Amino acid sequence: MSNNSPGYVIEAFVVNAKSRVFRTHVDRHHPEVMWATADASGNSKNFPEIKSGVLRSLEALKYTLYGEGTHDHLLGELDNLTDRLKDSQDPEGLAMAISEAEPTLVRAFKM
Known about the structure:
Mean pLDDT: 85
Low-confidence stretches: none
Oligomer: single chain
Number of strands: 0
Shape: globular
Number of domains: 1
Radius of gyration: 13 Å
């Protein structure tokens, strides 16, 4: 993920998080994720909305994992990602935090 544009990294994260939450593939044009396609193009103008959407997607993923149980260590790692995302000041910061958490996210998406 780290070699891609911030918009692509954010979009891929949101699509994968929502796919995991809904337990089915969510197309990038699905109403639940199409904001990421439209807004997360690396444009800082919509940053507050982008950041809010990314944080909501991560919280939904964490809620799903919590409900399944036995994911305490993974949830702790995702809490660290939450902190990094909250500290991000622009789309590039969001994308960097997501990219650096890729090993954790891969595990979360596959569970």
